[in-house]
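Reopening closed ticket. The problem is back. First fold of the pair:
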Amino acid sequence: MKMLIAISVLVMSISISACGGVMKQYKKENVEILSVQQLSSGSTEILYQPTLETMHYCPGANHRQDGGREKVVFVRCDINEKCPVDVVAEKISQGQWKIVIPSKQDSIDLVFSDGEVRL
């Protein structure tokens, strides 16, 4: 029993240290997709606006392949942390950001804590 408790504590410690805390995701309603554009390079540019918050920000997105589709997750990070991301967001204007995903638009799914949206 002591070994099980020790393993549980170790696993929790490792998951918490990944980004100074648990990596958070946005809900669908908290990220407005302003535009999606296919670039001549074959990449996809996504212009978006996350809900402005005082204790969190969006440093960019993580992406992975799953079932032949590119899954993109906008990272929600505490303001006092630096969360690692696969694609760093570029600030376009106040509250508006841009990421470029190296996949075609028709193979991208945006993944949120409350579901997915196919582009």
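Second fold of the pair, where the issue appears:
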Amino acid sequence: MVWGLVGKAQRLMNRGETSVAAEILRRRIGEEERVNPRHMNLLGICEVKLGHREMAREIFGEVLASYPRNAAALTNMGNLAFLDGDGQAAGDYYTRALRENAFLKEPRHNLVSLYQDMGHFEKALTAYEEYAFMAKAGRWSSALVALLFLLLLMLLVRR
């Protein structure tokens, strides 16, 4: 579960109250001294859902101006390019996002869809295999982290 402003905005969006989530995010962003990429990326997603793609593009661009290696903004720019039918740009953004964070699932998943739409079925299959591997690895790493946490807790309790 995600807490704080991001969690609240996501819950509002899930309930279909995207405009309320966007307003809360705009208000908070206006109070912040510097760009908060998580808040800005979420606001951009709200803008896309509200049908304001150009506004979203500006928001993601602002994140990338401050944080050029932000994988979420790169992925979101790829999503906009995909929606606009610019497969080449979408693929470039997804690839850049994966260079910044090789463990992300979303750009891998999006590459599968992109390659299918472009008729590059062998590339789609390869991208799917990578996505499936990362999804499986993610489950194992979560289990490992939980196990390590329990072991650490047991050590602390014994003292």
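Update: turned out to be a display glitch only; the data is intact. The helical segments are 4-14, 18-31, 37-49, 53-66, 71-83, 87-100, 106-118, 121-158. The chain has a mean pLDDT of 91. Please close again.
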